[in-house]
Amino acid sequence: MRVSSSLFFQTGVKTINTQQADLMHLYQQIGTGKRMITPSDDPLAAAQTINIAQSQSLNARYTENRQVAKTALATEENTLTSVSSLLQGIKTRLVEAGNGTLSDADRTVLANVLSNAKDNLLGLANAADGSGQYLFSGHAGSRPPFVASSTGAVSYQGDEGRRLIQVDQTRQLDSADTGSEIFMSAAPGARDYITMADLGNTGTGVIESPIITNPKGAYVGESFQIDFTEAGDGTMQYSFQVFDADGNVLSGPTTPVNYSPDNASLDLPGGVQVKFSGVPADGDTFRVEPVFLSNPHVAAASAGWSGGATLGKPQVTDPAGANVSAELSVVFGAETAPGSGIYDYTVTDNSTPPVATTRQYDSNSSDPLDLGGGMQVALSGVPANGDAFTVKPVEAPANLNIFDSIDAMIAALERPTVADPAARAMFSNVLASTMQRVDVVYDQVLTVRSSVGTRMAEIAAIDDNASLRGLSYEQDLSRLENVDYYEATAQLQLRTAALEAASMAFKKIQATSLFNMNN
């Protein structure tokens, strides 16, 4: 093989350039501290680095989200602590109001105290966070959740939106609770009843302290109305009516029963008992209402129900079903064939626009009537052509608006009761009703505070896990990206020696020629 002078030069220059490039690469690694200067240095490690860096970035983002959630929940916790203390003070004032030795002037002073407490409570209910967003207005954070009218009545103006924050890759957390949930609702799982007397009552009857004597009673969770009437012989009698959450009569009026002031309590139908005292007058009415629902849906037959079918209670078969939150109208048609026991029925979702579907009911079957969209209703017997009923979601009938309760108590305190037994009885009824409502709302505030604490504890646990995960990401990135200085320094010395050797070799080759070789 013939080796030309130009090949000598090209080979020498190429060798020197290669050594210089390797040396430059080592300089860059040591200068930047990175093992990979370009992705081609280690394609697999480069791809892994991108994925880990993205995960690390998300982890940092979730950490910031958790800090936002912690700040919001801490603000809510401080506000609810103040609310709890204020409600305790209101309960103390209500106990003082029950002192029978107080004069009308004393009660007026207590009315002023409660009025100031209501204003303070309204201020806390309209508390805002550091960014000016109202804490308890749901998604409507720019407007106050509670607004007082010209008459002083307070109503909720927020919505039921949940302020969810993504605190981890698979976890969203409520960073606030709504005002309606805190100040106008009972705690989940509460099984309380509250009482009220009609404002037109003229007797001295006082109703208070309802209790559930049979948790499985037929009408537990329904509303009761007690009506007093005077019999022809002057005997006072009472009867009951039972209503569902939509106001439909489930039972009654019952046959009137003689009333005796010696009875310390009245047994309501279906597993509820209520304490009662005093002498009611003819026409006096009292109500006992639950703060909970025995069923979140009611079914009511329409006027003109003429068939032999018996309508039962609705049931939810799929909580995520389309009809769970809808009001449904059901109309039966004629029997499809004589003697078949099969009837067509149409289910209409009363939305905009209405959506109607036709199904079939077998009167010989004991299966519930399927309404679609996650709803069914118990039905037995034979319906008539044209029979109709409705099914719709309902809320607990009791008014638990804490501001309305305080207003009612203030009005009762401002009414004179001295030397007026009927007025005194009405005051006692309002006092008992208000204390029951305040107790229910106070329990709910404590429940929400407990929930806030639970969420803060969960955030702390996620923070701990995220810190460990972040440390793992850093270790993985360091293993993939960072240069080993000991190895890089050794390689630097080796490449420097190699470059010097290449340069010396090139000098030797450069001085070589055919003439010199011949000499």
TrEMBL record:
It comes from the Bacteria. It is found in: Bacterial flagellum; Secreted. One of its GO terms (molecular function) is structural molecule activity. One of its GO terms (cellular component) is extracellular region. Keywords: Bacterial flagellum, Cell projection, Cilium, Flagellum. InterPro entries: Flagell_FlgL, Flagellin, Flagellin_N. This is Flagellar hook-associated protein FlgL. It comes from Pusillimonas minor. The gene is flgL.
